[in-house]
User: Fold this.
Amino acid sequence: MRRDRGLPVLREKELLAAGVAVRPLRRITVVLGRAGGGKWHVPAKAAGWRSHCRYAQRLTGSPLALLDVCEQVCRHCVPVVRVEPGEGALWRAAADVVAADVRVRRLEEQEAGPRSWEGYARVLWEVARHRDAEVRRGLESWTADPSVGAGARQMLKAWTGVLERSETVLAGWPGGSACGARGDVGQRGV
Assistant:
């Protein structure tokens, strides 16, 4: 699934690498069906050509773990995949943690080399702090919920971990004078 049209795609391997607890995400189920071995479809509630997907007509569905099938949902059905609001918040926060983790890993693996103002600006742009308030706001309202509360608390912990790593990487990039004067950007390394 694509972020611009529905829930983002999550992969278990990436979730585990980012320190995200997979169990709460595995509990998120959606009703999907398919004819044969093709893509999964959201069964159409109304018959006719106005359905969201022509393959979804006359399908019956069964509940499946979204984590297992999210990459195999038909592109026409992606926008109509629905989950409970708390589950959606958990899913989107997991995607934010994974995206921030990927950026931090990339920055952590860079060689020290010369540091420039442009490099510092790029690193500053990529650190997780810019999404912190939005991610926390999306999760905090669900921490007391009986169905997704434990998952929301675990997700906040994973987010805090990646945020701390992000800030550590940023602290390793000296801002200001150590990057050189504006006139000699990239000419003098740290």
Notes: Helices lie at 12-17, 23-26, 66-69, 85-109, 117-126, 132-140, 149-171. Strands lie at 29-32, 62-65. Confidence is low (pLDDT under 50) at residues 176-190.
